[in-house]
Amino acid sequence: MELARRLSKLPPYLFVEINRKIAELRAQGKDVVNFGVGDPDLPTPSRIIERICQAARDPANHRYPETYGLPELRAAIAEWYERRFGVELDPAKEVLPLIGSKEGIGHMALCFIDPGDVALIPDPGYPPYSLGTIVAGGQPYSMPLREENDFLPDFEVIPDDVADKAKLMWLNYPNNPTGAIADLDFFDKAVHFAQQHGLAICHDAPYTEVAFDGYRPPSFMQVPGARRIGVEFHSLSKTCHMTGWRMGMVVGNRDMVNVLFRVKSNLDSGVPQAIQYGAVEGLRGSQEHIAEHNAIFQRRRDRLVRVLNEIGLKARIPKATFYVWAEVPEGYTSIGFAKTLLDELGIAVTPGTGYGKGGEGYIRFSLTISDGRLEEGVNRLSSWRRRT
Ligand SMILES: Cc1ncc(COP(=O)(O)O)c(C=O)c1O
Question: What are phi and psi of 97, to 5 degrees?
Answer without folding.
Answer: -70, 150
